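Inputs:
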Amino acid sequence: MRSPIVAATGNLAFTDNGTVWATWRLAPQAYGMRPLKYRHAARNAHTALFRAINGEGLLLGLLARTDPAAVVERMIEGVDLARHPGWAAEAEARLDELETMPLGQRTFWLSVPLVNESKEMLMAPVRSWWSTLADLAALPRSGPGQALVAQRLAQAEALRAELPSVFAPRPATVAEQLWIHLQLMQRGTAGDQEVPALSDGSVDAETLTIYTGAGLPSPILDEGGQSDLARKSTFNPFKRKFVKITDPVTDLASYQQSSIITGTPVGGLSFPGGEWLGRIDESGLEVDWALRFRVRAGREVRARNAKALRNLNDQYDQQDDPGLSQSSLCVVAGALAEYEQEFASDENEVEVAATTILTVAGATGESTMEQGRALREFMTDVWDFRLATEPGLQEELWHACVPGNPTRRVALKSQQITTSRAFSAAVPVMTSSLGDPAGVLVALGLGGIRVSPVLLDFDGAASRLHSAIAVGVCGELGSGKSVLLKSLALSILARGGQCVAIDRSPPGEWEQAFAVVEGQQTISISPDATTSLDPLRTLPPAAAATVTQSFVTALLRIPVASVQGMLLSEVLDPSYRQTHTLRSMADVVGHLSAHSDPQAAELGRRIKAFANLDLARAIFDPSLPGADLTAPALVVRTHELTLPSKDELTIRHLYEELPLEKILGRAIYTLAIATARRICFRDRSRLAFLFLDEAHSATISPEAERETSDWLRDGRKNKAGLALGSHDPSHDFGTDVLRRLIPVRVVMRHRDEDLAAASLKWLGLDPSTSPDVLDLVTTGLSPMPEGDQASADPTRAGEGVMRDLRNRIGLIKTLPPALPGAREAVFSTPPATSESQAP
Amino acid sequence: MGRDEYVTERVRFYTRARRFPQMIGKIGDLRLFGGPYTTAQFLVGILGIWVLVQSAPLWARSSNLFLNLLVGVLLLVGLVRLVGLLPSMSFSPGLRARGLLRVYLAPREGTYRGQRLRVRRPHRLRTRISVPLEELAVPGSTPATTAATSPGPPAPSEHRSHAAPVSNVSALLAQTIKAEGAGR
């Protein structure tokens, strides 16, 4: 058997039987764990896809390798590596790491034979006979003429315009057509390649034509791998149900086993949940699928149904016996009536008669057959489909997967018939991939059989998606929440960004993480403070006045418009301070205390009460050097501060009796966030982030919560991002509006069902309709050690469910930095003797 | 849109509504004994009767006509029953048989470009290249008087490793190489 394709140009394949096939690449529908309304939308898109095609078609779902170098290129896109050698080193280390991973994606291709219209009905066969004759006579080949190509391209384009735009159907290039052929030949071997990148315009794809024999490789097809057998050994095709395909160029042999669906679930499938083709990756096997289908319009279907009814009546007559055969005819009659009802209730309904071919491949026959067995078991046990893996027909089934080949008898005989609406419940063209085309590589997507990189592009979020720059992570202790936030921070720093972290952990895990960054600055709010956070010494005069005002009003709990509030405002005014040489908080306190105005003296005395506290040194001690707020990485350690509880802030008598330390703690948090805001909002060209790992510490105070809310609203314009970590998103991420404004949300393991449910709700999922996702969060993510296990499986660390900037939800595994030094730095629990812990 | 609008739906395949086992229970008004039969059983039955009649001398060894008839009927019933055991709807038995036949007939080496992959024994290629006379006017060599014909099999000789041209064709090649070298 010869390949029927004689020439390929653009997305067209001219065959020797006169048919011209057009191929498009389809963009998959985001599915994963998205809420029901998105799943229904994806399914409706599939219904529309089948309804847009009248006649035959071939839909392919082929796994493709992702080149690690391409991923790294996406990481470094837009980053000046000469200026940021740290990111270059990280990218290089990441490349080495990615090369050990099964990176890939499923690619979707739709091939449709174009109808031969008007004179082409005559000319196409004539041309094909001539080309066959010319080949026999060894005459030089001539491709299709330009006029014909233009006419066929226009025909293909008209068809493309009918396809639902949500699939963004893009005409395949000649290189992609070649790739499909190569992939069908080489799958399962080391020759597996990534889909060729789109031409950069150097080759005019429109005029490029390839011919069979020149462009398309000619594989050696060997049913049952007989060439592997010794010359006189017996050959049992039932024990060798595969086809061996050898690429004569590379000599790589791919052993492929194709199974065909011969029986469908008697009770049907439910939707959502029954996406039997879209969820094929859940088999844990690398399965390629091909759907050879024919779409028939309602009128034709009803004519066929009428014929089937006549046939059925005849069978009643032929099987005039009240036994089993009659009852099976009743089942047929019921199905026929139901089918007819489907068409009566929807006049746009069409029939999809599809042959589903599932192919597994390996480097040996045995491994392929083992995979085939597992696939059949999966399809039967999980979906109740029956698969036939026929010996002797493996080569034929392989041909049935190749675009350009006519539908073969084996495919026709195994067609399963249903409506477009029912078939679309299989949601074949779906993806669970997440993230952006470029940016920071934060995780690997685990939704498919091959892992996919998850990148977050915060610059793009601000400029293209007009979304707030914010990330929220929630999970229980030890679920990997802090590692994700610290990894993100180090990536932003390595790319030239600026990060401020408020570190409430006693061991100082953020200080340790930032220790690898040159120019890192730590401000410890403790009696042993070495650096000052005094706003009057660290911030520009105007900003200093505002920040100090809000700090002191929070500290003294006085209204801004009160006499003392107004007095404070006057004193803090930049010109007043310049006149009276008030350069620090200590100066202001001294000035007020010594003031002749009793209100001012009272104000000074009250501030002094706080200034005398040990913990307030970092604000009021003028001997400490002021912090350098231009440092790329800044950590404010607040572990020694005590904070009021929610009750203490809301119940009046508790509020009145708040101890000074708690009042100071709350005010310093407000000051730290206000200072961070001034730092991060300063430079619009540079991405800057504030990390609040224990977000409840900040959101508990109304002033700090107001600061974070303002941040989320205005941060986008200033390239200022906010990253929050917490155990309970329903309480710790502030108000409802604040919670909803966070676009990137990650939920990690939560063994507590209530907290897990609250986290899922925040993610956008309804735990009552997604019980499987609730189970996943409570027990499935980074499972805890069981029984005799000493520790949890390190390869499962950092698993979570992510919602990305485009509202897609899927399973991820977070990636710590690839560089060994940075990687060590992000893992918490710093050693007790660490130098970084020294005051 | 409310959640209630997204109810779980049951979807089915309707293959059985259009493809169901075709049985033959009667011909005209005549009910077939032991029927209904599948199409395969019916065809095998007809074929079986013909084969049994043709091969009667082989199996009808008894002098008792009744006994011979009984053996014939038993053979036929056995054959038809056997065919009835074939699953009628899962996978076409005809296709299965075709596949098996094809696999046994397929060449063991596999097929390449739709044809049997033949590996020939090692053999020599004899060339018949004709080159115009003027092209052979290589400076420093004897002008050839006839068109170069096949140099024949290169005899195992010490000259093979020498750089100097030994035949007209190799002289031509040397000239070409020189010309290319000069062009660079």
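Residues 138-165 of chain B have pLDDT under 50 and may be disordered. Flag for discussion at group meeting.
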